[in-house]
């Protein structure tokens, strides 16, 4: 993936790696979303934080970056830290103590809890790229999260739907990394101001990332009410 002249490597986990800077980016972990939903009467298995942290630890171990930047909404709400289990808290601390760790504030967590390690920042400008939670659309080189992109294509008569990266070579939006974070169709009007022309999606697969031009996309299948 080329963004504002910079070569970035999308990973099938949903992380984005910048080899030149040894920088790994992930977006929208939404830690403790399950416990937040449970408090509102929507009972989900309370294992999303542990599952998300296991996947994050695995990609950090595989790519061994010097720096990890979490692009906002790492915690689902301002009280998420208090609901962490002792094991999940320890997992986060092990990650943040193992290398430079940056928490970029999001709309769910404008002030991430740095008591778990790492440093909180509003955004990060590094060479030709600007890392932030929500893309503004007026600046080349934006790397953001927030929108949770997801896309569908038809392959051999079957629909393939996955979380995805989306990029037009000027900016990129990462898929949500969190287990319960969900996704928004890249055809949704929310993406229009950021990607008014042709773009590519990078669908997450089991063994790698699959790249498709925007002309190949089809709308997501409607969800059936439960």
Largest sheet: 10 strands, mixed
Mean pLDDT: 92
Order of helices and strands: EEEEEHHEHHEEEEEEEEEEEE
Would you report the number of β strands? 18
- Reported CATH architecture: 4-Layer Sandwich
Please report which band the strand proportion falls in: under 5%, 5-15%, 15-25%, 25-35%, 35-45% or over 45%. 25-35%
Q: Number of helix segments?
A: 4
List low-confidence stretches.
none
Give the radius of gyration.
17 Å
CATH topology, anyone?
A: Purple Acid Phosphatase, chain A, domain 2
The tally of structural domains comes to 1
Shape: globular
CATH class category name: Alpha Beta
Distance between the termini: 38 Å
Folded structure, characterized:
The chain has 226 residues and is of the alpha/beta class. The protein has one domain: Purple Acid Phosphatase, chain A, domain 2 (4-Layer Sandwich), CATH 3.60.21. The protein contains four helices and 18 strands. It has helices at residues 33-39, 48-63, 80-83, 86-97, and strands at 2-3, 6-7, 9-10, 16-18, 23-26, 67-70, 100-104, 119-121, 124-126, 129-131, 142-144, 149-155, 158-167, 172-173, 184-185, 200-204, 209-213, 217-218. The strands form three sheets. Strands 9, 10, 11, 12, 13, 14, 15, 16, 17 and 18 form a ten-stranded mixed beta sheet that branches. A six-stranded mixed beta sheet has the order 3-4-5-6-7-8, with helices on one face. A two-stranded antiparallel sheet has the order 1-2. Helix 2 packs parallel to helix 4 (86-97). The termini are far apart. The model has no long low-confidence stretch (mean pLDDT 92).
């Amino acid at each position: 993936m080329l963004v504002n002249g910079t070569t970035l490597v999308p990973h099938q986990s949903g992380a984005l790696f910048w080899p030149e800077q040894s920088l790994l980016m992930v977006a929208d972990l939404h830690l403790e979303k399950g416990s937040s939903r449970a408090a509102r009467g929507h009972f989900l298995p309370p294992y999303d934080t542990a599952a998300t942290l296991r996947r994050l630890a695995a990609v950090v171990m595989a790519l061994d970056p010097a720096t990890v930047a979490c692009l906002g909404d790492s915690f689902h709400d301002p009280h998420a830290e208090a609901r962490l289990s002792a094991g999940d808290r320890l997992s986060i601390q092990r990650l943040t103590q193992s290398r430079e760790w940056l928490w970029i504030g999001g709309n769910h967590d404008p002030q991430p809890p740095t008591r778990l390690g790492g440093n909180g920042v509003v955004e990060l400008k590094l060479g030709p790229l600007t890392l932030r939670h929500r893309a503004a659309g007026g600046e080349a080189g934006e790397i953001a999260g927030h929108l949770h992109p997801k896309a569908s294509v038809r392959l051999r008569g079957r629909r393939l739907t996955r979380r995805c990266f989306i990029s037009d070579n000027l900016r990129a939006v990462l898929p949500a990394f969190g287990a319960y974070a969900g996704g928004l169709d890249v055809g949704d009007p929310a993406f229009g101001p950021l990607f008014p022309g042709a773009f590519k999606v990078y669908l997450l697969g089991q063994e790698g990332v699959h790249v498709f031009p925007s002309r190949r996309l089809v709308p997501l299948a409607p969800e059936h009410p439960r």
